[in-house]
Every structure is written in structure tokens, then in C-alpha cells.
Amino acid sequence: MIQVKKVSKVFPAQGKGESVTALKDVSLEIERGDIFGIIGHSGAGKSTLLRMLNGLEKPTTGSVIIDGKEISKLKDKELRLARQKIGMIFQHFHLLWSRTVRENVAFPLEVAGVPKSEIQRKVDQLLERVGLQDRADAYPSQLSGGQKQRVGIARALANDPDVLLCDEATSALDPETTASILQLLQEINRETGITLVLITHEMSVVRSICNKIAVMEAGEIVEIGEVEEIFNHAKHPVTRKFLQQEINEEAKDLGKCLTVTISKQSDWNNLISIAQTYQVSIQIVGGEIQATTDKHTISFRLLGEPANVNKAIDEILSQANKMEVIERV
Amino acid sequence: MFDQVDWQQVWIATQETLFMVGISTFFTALLGIPLGVLLVITDRGHLWENAAIQRVLGLIVNIFRAVPFIVLVLFLFPVAEFILGTSLGPAAATIPLIAGAAPFYARMVETAIREIDRGVIEASQAMGASKFTIVRKVLIPEALPAIVSGLTVTCVSLISFSAMAGVVGGGGLGDAAFRFGFQSFNDQMLIVCGVLLVVLVQIVQGIGDLISKRLDKR
């Protein structure tokens, strides 16, 4: 479906600055129906790579082929036609604020020269799909971030594209909204078999919807493959760092987390009795056994009534002489 | 109280002002908007990068903006003669008015269009929109509130500039205030014409603000 072959991109020097190599000999293949995640830090080249897929950037060397057409070689008009079959959504939505939701979704259809009556029908259908039919006549400024992204998705799907490019599509959204947008993207992928290519710097996004992943660093793909394979056997340090980061963030999301040292069985019993006193439960999120020093660490979360959780934490902290509290997140 | 006011003359002058300002505002918009658009899209890395056009247009705009209006009026005598067959009267006065205001307005349009988020333009390109479609359906509609408020400011300037049209016999309220009021020691005439100008400016500004506000959906 999508083939990127030995693509390099060098941005020429501007003024006194030096030229920047954004991509170095990048190759990858994306199959029809894939949800392909490209993860990397900012400046890793993932955005440049994504923008090459619809010809917003031209490769310095190498070629980009979508559905048998070499995007990087198309003439202006052919490129415009090809782009109508490649939808794109953005971190900051990029809606036209002078148009209503309905008119925003109609825009790509106008561009494609679809007749008015057909546009009306299609827009209704798209708005219903993204769950915004009752906001059709609102202006983007009246919508929440999640709703704006839904408009962006409806707009990107207007011409029934084969590929949907997602440029950090959920990075400006809160976790709950992110989840709902990702779910919508996944549903659309299942229903239409559309190929999704998304770039992100959050592993959680990749984990929740992607089936394949490429990890980028300094303009190169350092690791690529099936998501399960990469998550279980990450080889490159950059990939591991991303995975670690995700765990930390998850721990943060789920409430207060304590890490304490335990050296005797009684310490553990003590912890359990505190939990019982305040009617909270202990959820272990991690731990480490130190065979040499007998100082084992355990990380856990307390779940229950927030007031009780706080009291229990205070109790544990007050017994710091017995249990060393190492970290409190 | 206004026994010394020649209302007939005031009425004629009002009509002349409305005619001159109306025509010149219309043509200022007609020239200024495309010029402003061109100034933006020929810029480096924009829709239609073209350094030569960008520089030539920028130079022309700056020349016209630098020349004092009264000099422009005198310079453009032959042009008015050529286009209209006469270099005198309200119609002839519109030529330097347009020449003075259009470049000024073009810069305002340029600023308005530059305000548009580049991402929105890129999104339109990603949808396969042509340059012309982007100008017509994205750049102008998105910048419209600022384009309208810029035209309001320009129109108000044209009202005050039109007072100088007296040089070419353009007439108008400003000219009447000067000739029939100030020079003829007729204070009443001066006041009436002055007040009418203020009222006219208020009306233009009020309507302009209203339209601009209506258009602004941000």
C-alpha cells in the first residue's frame, strides 16, 4: 500500500545556518488496513516522514509510493487528485473558523467538485459517523478540543480516502478525550479498512491502537515491527525509554504511589494492617528484591475512599522509622 | 441660526463626497485585495513563491505610500486625462484617491492574511485544493473580518483625503468647508460641513465595525 524507499531529506541552509538532515535513508512498508504508529521525540524526523506521504514535503533522494503511484514524482494536478484520497488530521485541528462544522466538512468535497446535493448527503453521513450531527451549525470556536478533532476526522474522511495520516492527532487532548478519539479511529479502520499512519510521542497511543510501529531517532528508523514483538522485546534504548515513560505516566494517572523498603516480614504485615485499618486496598505496581542487603523495595498504590487513602498514607509516613519511604509520587 | 449656510451648496458637496469616497473605496478594495494577496503568496515558502514579483510589487506599493497625497494628485493629472478624458472634477479626483489608498490598503490586507495560521493553509493543500481555491475559499474568507475593518479605516482616510480633491475641482465637503467656509469667513458653513464630515466618518466606522463583528466567528 505505502512504500517508502531509501528516503532522505535535507533542508538547505537558511542564511548563515547549516543545512539540516531530517531523514537519513528511511525505508518502510505499510500494508492496507494497518494502523501504523511512528514514534519519536520532536526533531526525530517523524513529522517530515509523515508529510512526505501526501507530498507536503518532497524527498531529497528516494521515493514514496502509495497505491502504485510515486507521490514524490507527481505533477501538480495529479498530486492534488492523489491527495484527495489521502486524508490528514492535525494536532491543532486546522479547521476554518469562518465556516460552520458542516461547511468545514464540506470543504474537501467542494475541492473535489462534488455536486451540492451530494455534498449535503455526504456531510450528514460523516457528521453522524463522528457523533456531531447536533453541532452541524456550530462554529469551531464553540467546540471543545475533542469535538474539533472529530470535525477534523469527518473532514479527512470526506472523499473516502484509502489512507488517513494522523499528525499528533491526540497530543492536544486530555487522556479521556484521547481515548475516545483513538477509539473512533480504530472503529473507522475496522469499518472501512482504511490504512492509518499516525505519528506520536506517546507510547500509550501506539499501544492502544497500532498493530505496527516504527521508532525514530535523529532521522533514522531504529526499530520497526509488529507492536507485540517490539513491546515484549524492545532492543533499542530509545524504544525502551519510551516504554518506561509510559509506565511512569500510567502510574501517575492511577493515583498516589508509594515506594518503601521492607526488610522484615513484620514490615509487610504492618503495611497490611494499616491498609485494613483504613479500609483501603494495596495494589502492587512494582518491586525489587535485593539479595545482598535484605532491603527490598516495593512500589504500591492505595485504592479506596480518597480521605481514607490520605489517612493511610499519613500513617505509613509516620512510621518512617520502620519502613523507609523512598519515593512518593 | 444657520442663515448663512447655502444648503444647496452643502447638498451638492455632500453628494460629491459620497461619490468620490464611494467610487474610490470600491476601486481601492478591487485593487488592494488582490495586491495584498499577491504580496503574501509570492513570499518565500508560500503558495506561489516568486521573489521577482514580490519585490516589484513591494517597491510599487512603497513608492505610492511614500509620495504625499497632494503630490500624487498633481502627478496623476495625465493619468486621469488619459482614462477619463479630463483631469478635473470629482471623477478625476478619484484617480489619485485610489492610487493613494490602494497600496495602503494592500498592506493592511497583507497583514490580515499573514495572520492566518500556516497550518490551515497546509491542511487545505493536504486536501488537494489548488492555489486559486485556497486564495478564494481559505485566505480571503478567513481574513475577511480584518479585511473589512481595514477597508473601514481606509474609507475614513479617503473621506479626509477627498478634502484635497478641491485642487482638481473635485469638490466635496472638505473642499466646501475650506473654500466656502474658511476662505469666505463663513463660520457657519465651516461648521456645517465639518459636522457632516464627522457624521459621515461615524456612520462609516459604525457600519464597518458591525460587519466586521458579524463576520468574526473566532
Automatic annotation (TrEMBL), chain A:
Belongs to the ABC transporter superfamily. It comes from the Bacteria. The keyword Cell inner membrane does not apply. Residues 2-243 form the ABC transporter domain. GO terms for cellular component: plasma membrane. One of its GO terms (molecular function) is ATP binding. Keywords: Amino-acid transport, ATP-binding, Cell membrane, Membrane, Nucleotide-binding, Translocase, Transport. The keyword Cell membrane applies. CDD domains: ABC_MetN_methionine_transporter. This is D-methionine transport system ATP-binding protein. It holds the Pfam family ABC_tran. GO terms for biological process: amino acid transport. PANTHER family: AMINO ACID IMPORT ATP-BINDING PROTEIN, METHIONINE IMPORT ATP-BINDING PROTEIN METN.
From TrEMBL, chain B:
Belongs to the binding-protein-dependent transport system permease family. CysTW subfamily. Residues 14-208 form the ABC transmembrane type-1 domain. It is a multi-pass membrane protein. One of its GO terms (biological process) is D-methionine transmembrane transport. It comes from Thermoflavimicrobium dichotomicum. SUPFAM superfamilies: MetI-like. Signal peptide: none annotated. The chain crosses the membrane at residues 20-41, 53-77, 83-106, 146-169, 189-211. One of its GO terms (cellular component) is plasma membrane. This is D-methionine transport system permease protein. CDD domains: TM_PBP2 (cd06261). Keywords: Cell membrane, Membrane, Transmembrane, Transmembrane helix, Transport. Its main location: membrane.
